[in-house]
């Protein structure tokens, strides 16, 4: 045994000696100008990472010696770019150093700092001069400059459970699941990391810029570790990430704006420090460290790697600060690599983003999920002819089996082979799928995510969050519903519900069926019927869908009594088609009868000729044009799950009432328009814009009229007016505008003590203007009660706080609302408080 130990000790010392024997303590050579080939004197030479030069040359020849190993030399001279060269046995003698003239005219001297230096003003900072050149030469994505292009995209998303320990592994929840820890890895901290999810995808991207702009991103292969049929888990994974451009002023993470360190507004947020020059893929680059001036703001810290010749961003690292104020997130880090084919453009090469998620605690030791996504871009081809059929959507692309590929394909498709840990994910998840306990856990997660509970193959109960409600007419209300559900890509769906009120002792119901004939253009037909108590007038741009639920008909807590509910018997048939991506045309045919659910307190009686009518009979056809440019969806079935984006929603609707059809009482024409868009305002947060306008061209009774949406509940309800009563404003012609800005804690981060609460401030203003004609008032028996905001624009304003909670669980929001005018009306509320859940990042 002693002889064996001595043998390994001898081998160890032999290796160490060999390393020292090959290490360099002396380096010699010459220094010349790269353009003139003339020798240069007065060059400062730095050894390794030392900040002080070991030698300043008096001619073009140098010889440096050191007691320590020399593995890198840096050469610096005024008006020349910093040059850094790695040293080994092959170049230690007769090293030829070529210095390039500095291209930034106002950089007089480059000082390498490892600590944060202090400058009297930013113009003294050499990093500022470099960044000025970056901004001056801001590059655009190279894909826009070519007539045609194509490239391959490989995406890998992995989830790992992190910070596990032996105590956690012994919990009862892991009974019969303990085999999963055979796939765990020990981390540097001694904790356990366990891979739990892996998704690989390969996309082929095609684009054309001339004569018309067209593009297509085609999913050609996908492999998921045991979750192919689980739309919630896969959607969660895909929905975490956004595409970013380092040159933009604002980077989008979770639809929250982070200031970009390479953006033109970067110096308002970050301090920059030039610390080194290094070689990246054979290119010399400035290494610039940046960090936020204030740690409380949503910002990054890390490094920028800027080409010394053309000031292109070769790469960047972005890491969140310790005080990141994003729900469920403990940290974000991103590594970016770019290719730069010319002076004006860049091409993405590789992006890696890692997100640490925890449900409750912000502590480093908290058990968390590490979600890592890496994307490799390759096989770029430019100006190669592309046939038009490449851009045409095909039926086979939407088949579930279209993306199925064998193991041989994946071995070839991956830019790097899977690690042993990643390979184990597939094996582990296959075993877990056969474990009932694991399936029960997944089922619970699916239920909370979708709102439906699967009771047997093909049947889900729900939505579970609609089971209980309460209102003045029905009292306590119970609602039970179900839907068909076989796979995530079902081309058809049947849904129904039944409800019962314990005060009016009436049974209500609704049922609807839909079938999609074609996955490409999503040609769909459907129909249904419902008899229910509904709060009309809480939306302006409504839909005729049978399964839509009116929040006010089942509000648990509300200010004042609400008896303005309607009893509706409605039958709807519809067809829709998507002739172009994210552009939908829908036609609805609706027959309905509407009457007051409480005639003593809410009068819908109107004049029909010389008679009084309590029930409105209506038949109408609605043509809707719905545009969602930029929206992204998962799945291809009748129901799709939308990825988080900043895509706008644009709706144009025309409704034609048909008198006499199924005993309908009125001919009328209505035109409506809706525009909704979230907008990132740099580091100042996000603004939500909602604009609606419409006009009834004919006289109709109150049940068919436009009602400015009020909200008498204490809950937060989007696009309603918090201080309006139901039916307070009625209008033939209307316009409304809602502006709501989320500051993401920008202002509160300046206030001592308050900033520790990590609250985020909100400000909002809402306005409505409209007119109501005399005939429209006169047709209703109690028409004198109703008016439009025609004297002045009605407005409300206020502020609120979101991100209320503890740790990472900050899901509450509270709003304080003030009514701006029309204060002389009876039974109004000048001030109100709304509260609610707001689950999001």
UniProtKB/TrEMBL annotation:
The keyword Metal-binding does not apply. Pfam families: DUF5686 (PF18939). Keywords: Signal. InterPro entries: CarboxyPept-like_regulatory, DUF5686. It comes from the Bacteria. Residues 1-23 form the signal peptide. The keyword Signal applies. SUPFAM superfamilies: Carboxypeptidase regulatory domain-like. This is Carboxypeptidase-like regulatory domain-containing protein. It comes from Chryseobacterium fistulae.
């Amino acid at each position: 045994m002693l002889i064996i130990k001595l043998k390994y000790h001898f081998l160890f010392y032999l290796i160490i000696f060999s390393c020292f024997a090959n290490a360099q303590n002396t380096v010699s050579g010459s220094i010349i100008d790269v353009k003139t080939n003339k020798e240069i004197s007065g060059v400062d030479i730095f050894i390794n990472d030392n900040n002080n030069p070991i030698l300043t040359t008096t001619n073009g020849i140098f010889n440096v010696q050191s007691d320590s190993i020399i593995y890198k030399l840096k050469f610096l001279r005024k008006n020349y770019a910093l040059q850094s060269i790695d040293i080994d046995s092959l170049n230690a003698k007769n090293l030829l150093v070529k210095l390039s003239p500095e291209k930034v005219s106002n950089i007089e001297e480059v000082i390498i700092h490892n600590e944060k230096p202090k400058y009297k003003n930013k113009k003294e900072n050499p990093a500022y001069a470099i960044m000025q050149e970056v901004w001056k030469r801001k590059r655009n994505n190279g894909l826009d400059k070519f007539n045609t292009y194509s490239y391959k995209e490989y995406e890998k998303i992995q989830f790992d459970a992190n910070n596990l320990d032996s105590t956690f592994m012994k919990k009862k929840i892991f009974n019969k699941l303990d085999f999963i820890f055979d796939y765990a890895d020990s981390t540097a901290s001694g904790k356990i990391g366990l891979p739990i999810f892996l998704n690989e995808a390969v996309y082929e991207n095609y684009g054309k810029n001339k004569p018309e702009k067209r593009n297509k991103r085609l999913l050609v292969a996908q492999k998921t570790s045991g979750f192919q049929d689980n739309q919630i888990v896969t959607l969660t994974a895909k929905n975490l990430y956004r595409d970013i451009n380092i040159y933009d002023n604002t980077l989008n993470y979770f639809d929250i704006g982070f200031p970009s360190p390479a953006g033109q507004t970067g110096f308002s947020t970050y301090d920059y420090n030039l610390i080194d020059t290094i070689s990246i893929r054979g290119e010399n680059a400035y290494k610039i460290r940046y960090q936020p001036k204030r740690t409380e703001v949503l910002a990054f810290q890390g490094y920028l790697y800027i080409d010394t010749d053309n000031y292109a961003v070769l790469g960047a690292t972005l890491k969140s600060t310790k005080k990141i104020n994003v729900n469920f997130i403990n940290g974000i880090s991103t590594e970016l690599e770019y290719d730069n084919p010319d002076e004006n453009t860049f091409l993405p090469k590789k992006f890696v983003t890692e997100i640490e998620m925890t449900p409750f605690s912000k502590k480093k030791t908290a058990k968390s999920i590490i979600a890592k996504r890496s994307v490799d871009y390759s096989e770029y081809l430019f100006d190669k002819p592309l046939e038009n059929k490449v851009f045409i959507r095909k039926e086979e692309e939407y088949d579930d089996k279209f993306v199925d590929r064998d193991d041989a394909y994946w071995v070839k498709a991956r830019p790097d082979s899977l690690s042993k840990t990643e390979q184990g994910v597939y094996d582990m998840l296959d075993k877990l799928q056969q474990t009932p306990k694991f399936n029960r856990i997944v089922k619970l997660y699916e239920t909370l995510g979708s709102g439906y509970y699967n009771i047997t193959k093909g049947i889900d109960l729900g939505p579970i969050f609609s089971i209980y409600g309460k209102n003045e007419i029905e009292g306590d209300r119970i609602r039970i519903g179900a839907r068909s559900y076989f796979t995530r890509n079902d081309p058809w769906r049947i849904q129904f519900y039944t409800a019962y009120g314990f005060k009016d002792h009436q049974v209500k119901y609704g049922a609807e069926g839909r079938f999609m004939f074609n996955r490409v253009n999503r040609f769909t037909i459907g129909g249904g019927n419902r008899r229910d108590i509904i709060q009309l007038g809480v939306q302006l741009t409504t839909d005729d869908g049978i399964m839509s639920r009116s929040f006010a008909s089942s509000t648990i807590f509300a200010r004042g009594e609400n008896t303005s509910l309607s009893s509706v018997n409605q039958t709807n048939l519809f067809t829709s088609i998507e002739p172009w991506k994210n552009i939908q045309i829908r036609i609805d045919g609706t027959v309905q009868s509407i009457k007051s659910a409480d005639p003593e307190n809410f009068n819908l009686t109107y004049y029909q000729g010389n008679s009084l009518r309590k029930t409105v009979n209506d038949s109408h056809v609605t043509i809707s044009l719905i545009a969602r440019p930029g929206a992204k969806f998962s799945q291809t079935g009748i129901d799709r799950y939308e990825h988080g984006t900043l895509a706008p929603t644009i709706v144009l609707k025309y409704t034609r009432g048909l008198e006499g059809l199924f005993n309908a009482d009125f001919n009328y024409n209505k035109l409506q328009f809706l525009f909704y868009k979230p907008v990132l305002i740099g580091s100042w947060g996000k603004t939500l814009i909602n604009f609606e306008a419409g006009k009834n061209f004919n006289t109709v009774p109150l049940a068919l009229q436009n009602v400015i949406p009020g909200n008498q509940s204490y809950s937060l309800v989007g696009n309603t007016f918090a201080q309006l009563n139901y039916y307070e404003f009625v209008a033939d012609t209307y316009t409304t505008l809602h502006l709501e800005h989320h500051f993401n804690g920008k202002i509160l981060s300046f206030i001592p003590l308050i900033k520790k609460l990590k609250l985020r401030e909100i400000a909002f203003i809402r306005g409505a203007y409209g007119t109501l004609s005399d005939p429209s008032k006169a047709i209703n028996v109690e028409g004198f009660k109703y008016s439009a905001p025609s004297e002045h624009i009605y407005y409300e304003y206020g502020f609120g706080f979101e991100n209320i909670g503890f740790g990472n669980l900050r899901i509450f929001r509270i709003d304080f609302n003030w009514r701006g005018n029309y204060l002389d009306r009876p039974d109004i509320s000048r001030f109100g408080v709304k509260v609610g859940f707001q689950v999001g990042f």
